[in-house]
């Protein structure tokens, strides 16, 4: 089989033997790829530093039965230095790459839009271009949209009636009207759904006019919707919750799930 080239983001590293890494990569043309990088943990490795977590790289890989092999690496952008020095940025970036891996689907399934969104989110977080919480919410919404799991925000998730709607139910698929609203629906603060709509469109100018309470409830709804559809808790999201400033806002999520002041679903 012939080798191939692709652009990739390093999502995960696992040690293999004394000097190798098994990498989980989100590539532009080949989707999720797992590959061996041989000898990269040795001090004199030619490209070990280029394959750090969060790195955006151009790779040449040789296909294998279960794992491909990295044969060449060219760095496009290295974000680990900017992220590692700030705990908030680092944990937010961890949430981005964990989400990207969960939403990428099966290995080798092309995901060019998810790749583009992941690179853009890491660049924005590392560069401090916008509020990191807003970057994360926008990424979650747009990544879910690319994967076909976007929450309904302007229409009722059940009947399709035009909004605005006040209630949100994760299992129902997002915003719900007064006629379709299931028991246990969240009723977020005024402006939360407007913020979600803005961030789904990457309208950061509007998003930055919102307050802390609105942002944290929006974060909680986006995170709850994501975790419901991937079918598991993301390990990185509670880390952001525990170490981020808290407000007193609270709402009740789908099925009685509480959305706390930090905007993360609990319970």
If strands are numbered along the chain, what order do they take across the biggest sheet? 1-2-3-5-4
Structural class: alpha+beta
Share in helix = 25-40%
End-to-end gap:
49 Å
Mean pLDDT: 88
Q: What's the Cα radius of gyration? A: 20 Å
Strand residues, percent: 15-25%
Stretches with pLDDT under 50, minimum 5 residues: 242-267
> Helix count?
8
The biggest beta sheet is recorded as:
5 strands, mixed, barrel
Overall geometry comes to elongated
Strand/helix succession: EEEEEHHHHEEHHHHEEE
How many beta-strand elements?
Answer: 10
What does this structure look like?
- The protein is α+β, with helices and mostly antiparallel strands and 267 residues long.
- The chain contains eight helices and ten strands.
- It has helices at 80-84, 87-103, 112-127, 132-147, 192-200, 204-207, 212-230, 236-243; strands at 4-16, 20-27, 31-37, 56-62, 68-77, 167-169, 174-176, 251-252, 258-259, 265-266.
- Helix 4 packs parallel to helix 7.
- Mean pLDDT is 88; it is low at 242-267.
Short descriptors:
35% helix, 5-stranded mixed barrel, disordered C terminus, 3-stranded antiparallel beta sheet, 267 residues, 8 helices, alpha+beta, single chain
